[in-house]
Amino acid sequence: MAKKNVVVVEDVMKALKERRRINRIPLKDIIIYEGGKEVEILEWVKEHFEFTGLNNIDFIASGMYKVKEDKETYLKSKKYKNERG
Fold it and tell me: Can you tell me the distance from the alpha carbon of 26 to that of 85, in angstroms, rounded to the nearest whole number?
């Protein structure tokens, strides 16, 4: 018999509330911490992402906050081309 998994409605609602909170913050005002340390995000990366139509959660989930190349190098990169399809 397949193992059953429990989903607590209150936990889902709490996660959705936090997601909405994060997405309401202007991207330029977000400070991201990873592993207890503040992550330095290049200003051009935030500016570039603002025009994608995606939200702040997507900014984090996509790993865009980790981009360290200059804009020209990144936009010419294989990684960028793969993301664009």
Answer: 27
3 state DSSP class of 33: strand
Predicted structure pTM score: 0.80
What is the DSSP annotation of 46-64?
A: HHHHHTSS--HHHHHHTTG
- Give the single-character DSSP code of 77: S
Kindly report, residue by residue over 47-72, the tens digit of the pLDDT. Answer: 999 988 999 999 999 999 999 999 88
Q: What are the structure tokens assigned to 46, written together?
A: 């935030």
Name every residue whose Cβ is closer than 8 Å to that of residue 38 and which is 6 or more positions away in sequence: 31, 32
